[in-house]
Amino acid sequence: MISCILKTQSRFFCAFLLSLVVSFGALAQEGASEQADVATKGVDPGATAGAEASTGDPAVISAGESLFKNNCAVCHSAGSDVIVGPGLQGVTERRSEAWLLKWVKNSQALIQSGDADAVAIYNEFNKQAMPSFAFSDDEIKSILAYISSGQGVTSAPAAGPEGVTAGESVGTEAVGAASAIGGYLDIVLVVLIIVLIVLVVTLLLITSLLKNYLNKNRTLNEYDTEVVNQRFDFSKVYKSKAVRALVLLIFVVVLVDLSIDKVMGIGIQQGYQPKQPIAFSHKLHAGDHQIDCNYCHSTVYKSRSASIPSANICMNCHSQIKTESAEIQKIYKAIERNEPIQWVRIHNLPDLAYFNHSQHTKVGGIECQTCHGPIQEMEVVYQYSPLTMGWCIDCHRETPLNTEGNEYYDKLVELHDASSKGAFTVASNGGTECSKCHY
Ligand code: HEC
Ligand code: HEC
Ligand code: HEC
Ligand code: HEC
Ligand code: HEC
Ligand code: HEC
């Protein structure tokens, strides 16, 4: 009788221990990769800090140097060589500081304002748009300090970006969020471990108490005494049916979980990530080098669809950059043969649905990332959102219209506010009517 209780008890105990070990392993691994993630993304924002306006300060110049190398050196030398854009030696004498600040932040805006110098240099360089940079004035001034210090003049032109410090201004926010989540997980993990240790210790105490009690109990027969005093035997754990059943169970659950994910995904292309003919990386271009989405997808604010860039746009840079790379050679081949690069299309709504990019990006002011996810971190693009009708409509129900500075909406807002207290959402403006999305 007692032996039976003890046996089952120890079985459960073993099973419990095993599941602990299994879940521990998984958790620990998750934690570790989480940390590794943060570590690889953990760029050093220190380079931009401390960039005060006083020129000539070596700290400012070196902050400027790292910003320049990571963001400008792909297209500019600090000397007089032309790479993609002009050599920047002496630029602080050619142009005023105010002009340079405006130019680096948004050269297109300056050109469109009709500034004569801006238009002239733009035309001189065949209207190649320089990307915009979301730098603070101090950061730009530190770059200018570096350029006018002359330190970069002797260094080789087109020096590749160094290390992972590129994309600081974009990266730090994301990294901050990632490490905040990482830190939170760490706390949960530690608490879990402590709770589990306490549990194990309590259980061990209980068994030893029971053992003592039973040993003192003289009514036990020989067999029972043997069972009570038996040592913990690992081969028994391994042979135990309960343990084997548990392992099998875990295996089956994981398998079922995976296949449910697959089955549910039929018809919905969320996560679709085809291999592309050229190993083009958004992380490298849009993330590390901060090339504006609009530089390549140039119709996304103007028209219904976002264009995929032609090989000529790649050539703006790759006629100079990484020319020896096998992947870049594929661009040259496509141009030689006068054939477009055969990019595999990822996002694709059925013909019955009407979607318009400019309506959402320009008029609605919605970020690309809201619908496409963290594209600037993707080596290979995948479909982030489900693109189902429910997804479109949910957002239309929740999102207030971007009516500010849009005269078209003024009257409508007045009418809405007079008749209803709720927010003036896309839906309240008819954004869930069938005909808006179906012809
Ligand atoms: C993708 C290539 C590219 C990158 C990256 C780039 N530029 Fe440019 N830049 C150009 C081109 C091309 C021009 C010439 C004007 C034009 O076509 O828009 C230019 C022009 C300029 C000019 C005007 C030069 C003059 O003589 O008036 C300045 C200043 C400048 N860039 C600064 C920078 C700084 C600072 C950075 C880094 C923060 C940077 N650029 C990054 C391509 C680039
Ligand atoms: C240097 C050029 C370049 C820049 C900059 C760039 N892209 Fe792309 N993008 C491409 C090319 C080329 C493709 C097609 C190959 C691929 O899917 O990777 C593409 C594909 C895409 C796709 C998938 C299109 C499909 O087939 O459905 C999306 C979405 C996208 N880009 C969004 C963005 C966003 C958002 C940004 C800015 C954060 C951006 N891109 C910046 C060149 C660029
Ligand atoms: C505004 C400049 C710019 C444009 C436009 C551009 N690239 Fe790049 N590309 C770069 C830079 C900078 C690198 C990184 C070079 C390095 O690592 O030294 C790069 C790297 C690459 C690489 C990796 C090469 C290797 O072997 O490491 C590929 C592939 C590539 N680009 C493809 C493309 C394609 C395809 C397009 C057109 C859709 C394109 N690029 C447009 C600037 C550009
Ligand atoms: C409101 C959601 C939404 C936003 C915001 C959005 N897109 Fe899209 N994007 C889509 C949908 C939906 C498709 C599929 C369109 C289709 O198949 O007709 C798509 C397709 C694309 C494609 C493939 C080519 C095409 O037009 O079908 C590219 C490239 C792209 N988006 C880039 C961008 C960029 C760059 C931005 C930001 C400037 C952006 N998108 C903002 C929803 C969005
Ligand atoms: C992230 C939120 C979001 C998602 C997702 C979204 N939309 Fe929208 N949509 C908006 C907003 C905001 C507007 C209003 C823009 C404006 O006119 O100010 C809008 C407007 C529209 C309009 C014009 C409505 C009108 O009243 O004129 C159409 C059509 C439309 N969306 C279609 C779609 C389709 C189709 C999808 C799914 C493939 C989709 N949208 C997904 C936010 C979204
Ligand atoms: C905001 C945009 C939007 C509105 C409003 C909308 N739809 Fe859709 N609808 C879509 C999109 C996008 C798809 C394609 C989704 C997919 O392929 O999963 C779709 C698909 C469909 C389909 C085809 C389903 C299938 O499985 O092929 C039908 C039928 C349909 N919608 C009917 C309607 C009706 C009826 C209304 C009005 C009550 C309506 N839709 C309103 C965006 C919209």
From TrEMBL:
<dbReference type="GO" id="GO:0009055">
    <property type="term" value="F:electron transfer activity"/>
</dbReference>
<dbReference type="GO" id="GO:0020037">
    <property type="term" value="F:heme binding"/>
</dbReference>
<feature type="signal peptide">
    <location>
        <begin position="1"/>
        <end position="28"/>
    </location>
</feature>
<keyword id="KW-0813">Transport</keyword>
<keyword id="KW-0812">Transmembrane</keyword>
<protein>
    <submittedName>
        <fullName>C-type cytochrome</fullName>
    </submittedName>
</protein>
<dbReference type="InterPro" id="IPR009056">
    <property type="entry name" value="Cyt_c-like_dom"/>
</dbReference>
<dbReference type="InterPro" id="IPR036909">
    <property type="entry name" value="Cyt_c-like_dom_sf"/>
</dbReference>
<keyword id="KW-0479">Metal-binding</keyword>
<keyword id="KW-0249">Electron transport</keyword>
<dbReference type="Pfam" id="PF02085">
    <property type="entry name" value="Cytochrom_CIII"/>
</dbReference>
<dbReference type="InterPro" id="IPR036280">
    <property type="entry name" value="Multihaem_cyt_sf"/>
</dbReference>
<dbReference type="Pfam" id="PF00034">
    <property type="entry name" value="Cytochrom_C"/>
</dbReference>
<feature type="transmembrane region" description="Helical">
    <location>
        <begin position="242"/>
        <end position="260"/>
    </location>
</feature>
<keyword id="KW-0408">Iron</keyword>
<keyword id="KW-0472">Membrane</keyword>
<keyword id="KW-0732">Signal</keyword>
<keyword id="KW-0349">Heme</keyword>
<feature type="transmembrane region" description="Helical">
    <location>
        <begin position="187"/>
        <end position="210"/>
    </location>
</feature>
<keyword id="KW-1133">Transmembrane helix</keyword>
<dbReference type="InterPro" id="IPR020942">
    <property type="entry name" value="Cyt_c_III_dom"/>
</dbReference>
<feature type="domain" description="Cytochrome c">
    <location>
        <begin position="59"/>
        <end position="151"/>
    </location>
</feature>
<dbReference type="GO" id="GO:0046872">
    <property type="term" value="F:metal ion binding"/>
</dbReference>
